[in-house]
Design brief:
This protein has helices spanning 13-23, 39-46, 58-68, 80-86, 99-107, 116-121, 139-157, 163-179, 225-228, 248-251, 253-260, 285-298, 316-324, and strands spanning 29-32, 50-54, 219-221, 236-239, 303-309, 327-337, 349-359. By secondary structure, it is α/β, with parallel strands linked by helices. The chain is globular, with a radius of gyration of 21 Å. The chain binds S-adenosylmethionine.
Amino acid sequence: MGIRYIGAKTQVIGEIIKEIIKIVPPGSHVTDLMCGTCSISTALRMIGYNVTANDVMTYSYHHARQALLFTRPPSFENARDFIDAFCPKESKKLFPLSPYEQMIEALNRVPSEDGYFWREFSLGGYPKNTEKPRNYFSPENAKKIDGIRRLVRQLHGENKINGLEHSLLLHDLILAANDIANIAGTYGHYMAKLTGRAKDKIIIKPSTLLIIDDEGKHTVLQDYAETISSKITCDLCYIDPPYMKRQYAANYHILETLAREDEPEAIGVSGLRPWRDQYSNFCTKTRIRDSFRKIFSSMNCPHFLVSYSEDGLLSLRELEELFSEFGNVKTMFFPHKRFKSNTSQLTPYLKEYLIQLKIR
Ligand SMILES: C[S@@+](CC[C@H](N)C(=O)[O-])C[C@H]1O[C@@H](n2cnc3c(N)ncnc32)[C@H](O)[C@@H]1O
């Protein structure tokens, strides 16, 4: 998936899956407890695991539903009126468009409007909470996002798209908005001038859907790992926690707003939404141990595999000591490309740990 996401495992999927296969075979039930962009959940589904994907963020929930729950192409059958009104009858494409492609064509043509994104996140607007307009999107793109958001919310509210189709459209909108966001890496702040892709026009593209006849094999959840763990039974649990102080809810607040379809008060220079309800203990050194303990002691699961980085808040020795309270520990290492903002001077590679815990 085309989102640059702190800690995403896109570059090391092969290494992680290889280790999972050594512990439990395809067909087993694996939980991806902090699934983020769902890179690991998607790969697991592709090779026949039953997957439970969880994350505290709403955008991850929609990404996971898009990745795990399609067993047939979406029909958008109840949105025919909307599609017919906005999607051109003639297509330049060689093959007729699928209902999903027609839906995307239609969405790309909905009228722009001066709404919340335009007001709060573009230089054309006038934010409620601060004097200086914010420059996350060009005014044209922000207006387009407002038009699309209203239409998607309306279609869902009128039951013209079902829950899964709704998640798919939000997933696609998040990716499209992220593509033209005027940021250096995260939504912690915007660039002073519109740069690079932020000058392009927003275009929603249909996702390449993973259609597999595996209905009922996968589950998508949205909760704190520490809370949900007691309700999960599985053969292996993969955990990829935050390893730095940077909170995901604060760094990806605009994607969360797209996913939640709300209009929260945008606060301060960066326009943060109130985000404490998604605060992660894994970003605070003194709370990490308790969180791991809660997960290991409450989940009905014999094997855990934990990703961590040499840059992390806890050292490898601290982690191994903690995990040893629960069973046998084995650590593997491999290099991983560092997440950097476009302007960062840091070295490009880090040592990534994969710590295996077999519960005693
Ligand atoms: C390193 S990222 C996971 C990246 C993911 N493996 C991928 O490839 O995209 C960490 C994720 O943990 C989530 N998270 C942080 N604390 C959490 C908690 N206590 N419970 C559930 N999810 C949490 C964040 O929202 C974030 O998506």
